[in-house]
Specification:
With about 120 residues, chain A is mainly beta. The N and C termini of chain A lie far apart (about 40 Å). The radius of gyration of chain B is 13 Å and the shape is globular. Classes of the chains: A mainly beta (about 120), B mainly beta (about 110). Chains A and B meet through strand 4, strand 5 and strand 10 of A and strand 4 and strand 5 of B.
């Protein structure tokens, strides 16, 4: 079964960093890319960045540039998103998703989401 | 960056109604558009790609159309399970795939 399973909820203090994982199963990781999407409470979906599962190339939204780092470990079949200098506005659910050539690069598989709460 | 504007942001409808949601792009994106459905507390569910191609398993009451800068998602006969928030996403500028602001469909 093709799925993405994310790590559990986190509570962090302002200024700290958080690292969220996204483990892939049921498909060849290096043939696909991962994207990360943020959703603040009651708000819409916000694209954060991308990593090519094969060569590890990355690209980030300007909004998060300098604060976000996306990596992957092919042997662990896992992608990671680290967000630093956390502030209260970063309280959100973070999703990983896979894009697919067979669906016009749309996000056909999503993780279940990871809630990150930033609070002093 | 390509901006997507959805309208309306909120709509109230009854079971059986025909519902249409519009997504406008700030520049032409050919047919590189996807639609997603999201229910509270859940990850988005992929519905449509290439503006009009239904993902496998998506009910045929959903349809998409458009190209260039204007796109629509239509639900021909709204069902109870369709009450959710819908998002469009542009797939033109890989990999920077921005989303529209969302349209919440609620029960009248």
């Amino acid at each position: 079964q093709v799925q993405l399973v994310q790590s559990g909820a986190e509570v962090k203090k302002p200024g700290a960093s958080v690292k969220v994982s996204c483990k892939a199963s049921g498909y060849t990781l290096t043939n696909y890319a991962f994207h990360w999407v943020r959703q603040a409470p009651g708000q819409g979906l916000e694209w954060m960045g991308w990593i090519d599962g094969g060569n590890g190339n990355t690209k980030y939204s300007q909004k998060f540039q300098g604060r976000v780092t996306i990596t992957r470990d092919t042997s662990a079949r896992t992608a990671y998103m680290e967000l630093s200098s956390l502030r209260s506005e970063d309280t959100a659910v973070f999703y990983c998703a896979r894009d697919s050539h067979s669906t016009g690069m749309a996000f056909d598989i999503w993780g279940q989401g990871t809630m990150v709460t930033v609070s002093s | 960056d390509i901006q997507l504007t959805q309208s309306p942001s909120f709509l109230s409808a009854s079971v059986g109604d025909r519902v249409t949601i519009t997504c406008r792009a700030s520049q032409a994106i050919s047919n590189y558009l996807a639609w997603y459905q999201q229910k509270p507390g859940k990850a988005p569910k992929f519905l449509i790609y290439d503006a009009s191609t239904l993902q496998s398993g998506v009910p045929s009451r959903f349809s998409g159309s458009g190209s260039g800068t204007e796109f629509t998602l239509t639900i021909s006969s709204l069902q109870p399970e369709d009450f959710a928030t819908y998002y469009c996403q542009q797939l033109n500028s890989y990999p920077m795939f921005t989303f529209g602001g969302g349209t919440k469909v609620e029960i009248k």
